[in-house]
Amino acid sequence: xxxxxxxxxxxxxxxxxxxxxxxxxxxxxxxxxxxxxxxxxxxxxxxxxxxxxxxxxxxxxxxxxxxxxxxxxxxxxxxxxxxxxxxxxxxxxxxxxxxxxxxxxxxxxxxxxxxxxxxxxxxxxxxxxxxxxxxxxxxxxxxxxxxxxxxxxxxxxxxxxxxxxxxx
Length: 168
Prior knowledge:
By secondary structure, the protein is α+β, with helices and mostly antiparallel strands. The chain has helices at about 5-15, 30-40, 75-80, 85-95, 105-110, 110-120, 140-145, and strands at about 20-25, 50-55, 65-70, 125, 135-140, 150, 155-160. The chain has 3 domains: about 5-80, no CATH class; about 85-120, no CATH class; about 125-160, no CATH class. The protein is about 35% helix and about 20% strand.
């Protein structure tokens, strides 16, 4: 099942019985952190929590609910990725990495679904408006490589980003 946004994901984990809704006013700086900490330390990672009425540090009510521990269990991570078990994702990546082009026309036609899957991962342009360089990173390379490849258009040279938090 494809989940397009956070609302869909919350609905899916709620339907699976993995979401606990907390409807009472809860302080964001003291109570939510303590409740979330205890929940995450419970066996199996605990349930996901949705605080529907968080109270801000200034004392006012927040207009937005707070969701925590959404990916705290293997079951919820698999649900987010649309697989039954997390190993399926690794197997799909391994299949794509060891892709061999067949000789015959029928073999090449049979390969089209796998190529269509690779086409879902076009390079994305990320970076700020102030910098001269924008990084181009391939989502597929981010998954399969520890260093996403990037290129600075003004310098024309390739660089490598050591972490996923790197910014252009």
